[in-house]
């Protein structure tokens, strides 16, 4: 099992049961549902398939709901798109009717108050920067622009306005409706877009509490795609449960040259604060159309692993590409190869800064050192919320981490955690019951053999809801 987890975006290429099954077998750990596309009925059908296959394959799959946010997009164009040539004049408008007094191709925009955001000389980038325009004039209802980088423009492609602050809410009414649906369907985590400050995260957290007051808080993953988010990085990481490094929009909003440095900064900061970090966008982009990645893409994935990311994400490769299963298999292969050389090249000693006096943090560090000192075969954790499993993953032990929980929601959520293999087990009320459950699971489902020592982390008294305070060195007994 690779330790870094694989997040796969599901879409037209990967929404049937056979393909999803094969992706899970190939190494998919997290299924990302992109709510910028699709319908609630369509997403519900995919969630049903994921839960069914997770049970059949005895493999936890974390379902990550990705809310659209106030994504700025092109409106509806002909199916074949429209060709734009350098030097051409175009008219950008929120109005769908033609404007006979204007000269140029009319492009509808799905974004509020475009005319209030830009001015002559402003740059407008479309489709992740593949096309570019310069604003010539701003009139009452439209923006006149000149194409400075041409290409074919398709419907609903993203729009970026580098250097321009857009004063629109990051959490829309559509997001609230989608979030309510996702929570009803039992999604495991939610990703939010267009995050600029910690307040954006807190707004969504309060909404989750309002919608599901009697349930444990659903973890929030903040997508970092704007320069303002990087300026407020520590505050956002403290407010959220994890972050996604959205390199596509970051590269457009800042510059491609800055993205590698920003990526390293985010990974380091998230790890120091014991928060999940996911690297996203164009990791194996060429595999959308080809059965193999470029050497540069393979190096990109490996370097993210060496830098200490918890997970890497496939987007178009699995959502709309021609080789979704092969992309997952290739990603798993690159991760495994990188992790086999982690000792000389990787950042493997992550010391958390946040809550450094927390008992759980101290227990996980002690467990790592005990496993090293006694050459233990693994570290096992009994947890109800999954917090200790996440902290254990963040200290990056040299041995496997097996996390045992009686809670279905925690079992599913731990599929995201680096190096953690979750087990859904009965509730234990005593140390003796806990060790019986542990031995049965380890001997039947892992390489652990009788006579090997394992480190056990738990709260004591066993069965109570409390911070872990018990570290036990246990020798696996021979089968009777």
In short:
With 480 residues, the chain is an alpha/beta fold. It contains 17 helices and 22 strands.
Description:
By secondary structure, the protein is of the alpha/beta class. The chain is built from 17 helices and 22 strands. It has helices spanning 17-26, 40-57, 114-117, 173-185, 198-211, 227-231, 233-239, 247-253, 259-272, 295-307, 316-319, 324-339, 342-345, 359-374, 387-394, 408-413, 431-445; strands at 5-10, 30-34, 62-66, 73-74, 82-84, 89-93, 105-110, 123-126, 131-138, 142-149, 151-153, 159-160, 189-192, 220-224, 242-246, 276-280, 311-314, 379-382, 401-405, 420-424, 453-458, 470-475. The strands form four sheets. An eight-stranded parallel barrel has the order 1-2-3-13-14-15-16-17, surrounded by six helices. Strands 4-7-6-10-9-8-12 form a seven-stranded mixed beta sheet, with helices on one face. It has a five-stranded mixed beta sheet with strand order 20-19-18-21-22, with helices on both faces. Strand 18 (379-382), helix 15 (387-394) and strand 19 form a beta-alpha-beta unit. Helix 5 runs parallel beside helix 7, helix 10 (295-307) crosses helix 12 and helix 14 (359-374) packs across helix 15 (387-394). The mean pLDDT is 91.
Blueprint (SSEs and pairs):
Layout: E1 5-10, H1 17-26, E2 30-34, H2 40-57, E3 62-66, E4 73-74, E5 82-84, E6 89-93, E7 105-110, H3 114-117, E8 123-126, E9 131-138, E10 142-149, E11 151-153, E12 159-160, H4 173-185, E13 189-192, H5 198-211, E14 220-224, H6 227-231, H7 233-239, E15 242-246, H8 247-253, H9 259-272, E16 276-280, H10 295-307, E17 311-314, H11 316-319, H12 324-339, H13 342-345, H14 359-374, E18 379-382, H15 387-394, E19 401-405, H16 408-413, E20 420-424, H17 431-445, E21 453-458, E22 470-475
Parallel strand pairs: 1-2, 1-17, 2-3, 3-13, 6-7, 13-14, 14-15, 15-16, 16-17, 18-19, 18-21, 19-20
Antiparallel strand pairs: 4-7, 5-11, 6-10, 8-9, 8-12, 9-10, 21-22
Helix pairs in contact: 1-2, 1-12, 5-7, 10-12, 14-15
């Amino acid at each position: 099992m690779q330790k870094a987890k694989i997040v796969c975006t599901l879409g037209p290429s990967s929404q049937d049961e056979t393909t999803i099954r094969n992706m899970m077998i190939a190494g998919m750990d997290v299924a990302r549902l992109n709510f910028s596309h699709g319908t609630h009925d369509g997403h519900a059908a995919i969630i049903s398939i994921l839960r069914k296959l997770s049970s059949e394959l005895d493999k936890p799959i974390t379902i990550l709901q990705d809310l659209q946010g106030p994504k700025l997009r092109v409106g509806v164009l002909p199916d074949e798109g429209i060709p734009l040539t350098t030097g051409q004049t175009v008219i950008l408008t929120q109005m769908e009717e033609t404007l006979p007094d204007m000269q140029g191709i009319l492009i509808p925009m799905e974004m509020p108050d475009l005319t209030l955001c830009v001015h002559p000389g402003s740059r407008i980038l479309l489709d992740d920067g593949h096309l570019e325009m310069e604003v010539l004039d701003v009139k009452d209802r439209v923006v006149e622009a000149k194409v400075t980088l041409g290409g074919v423009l398709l419907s609903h492609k993203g729009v970026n306005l580098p250097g321009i602050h857009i004063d629109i809410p990051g959490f829309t009414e559509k997001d609230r409706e989608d979030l309510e649906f996702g929570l009803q369907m039992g999604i495991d985590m939610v990703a939010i877009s267009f995050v600029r400050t910690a307040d954006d995260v807190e707004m969504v957290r309060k909404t989750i509490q309002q919608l599901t007051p009697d349930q444990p808080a659903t973890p929030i993953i903040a997508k970092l795609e704007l320069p303002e988010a990087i300026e407020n990085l520590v505050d956002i990481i403290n407010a959220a449960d994890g972050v996604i490094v959205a390199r596509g929009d970051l590269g457009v909003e800042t510059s491609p040259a800055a993205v590698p440095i920003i990526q390293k900064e985010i990974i380091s900061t998230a790890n120091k604060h014991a928060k999940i970090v996911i690297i996203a966008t164009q990791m194996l982009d060429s595999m959308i159309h080809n059965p193999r990645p470029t050497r540069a893409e393979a190096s990109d994935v490996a370097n993210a692993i060496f830098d200490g990311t918890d997970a890497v994400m496939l987007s178009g490769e699995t959502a709309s590409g021609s080789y979704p299963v092969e992309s997952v298999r290739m990603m798993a292969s690159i991760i495994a190869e990188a992790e086999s050389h982690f000792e000389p090249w990787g950042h493997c000693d992550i010391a958390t800064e946040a809550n450094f006096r927390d008992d759980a943090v101290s227990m996980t560090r002690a467990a790592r050192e005990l496993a090293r000192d006694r050459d233990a075969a693994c570290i096992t954790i009994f947890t109800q919320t999954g917090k200790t499993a996440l902290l254990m993953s963040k200290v990056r032990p040299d041995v496997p981490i097996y996390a045992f929980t009686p809670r279905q929601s925690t079992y599913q959520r731990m599929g995201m955690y680096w190096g953690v293999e979750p087990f859904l087990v009965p509730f234990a009320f005593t140390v003796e019951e806990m060790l019986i459950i542990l031995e049965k699971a380890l001997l039947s489902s892992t390489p652990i053999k009788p006579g090997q020592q394992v480190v056990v982390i738990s709260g004591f008294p066993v069965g109570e809801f409390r911070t872990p305070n018990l570290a036990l060195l246990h020798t696996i007994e021979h089968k009777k």
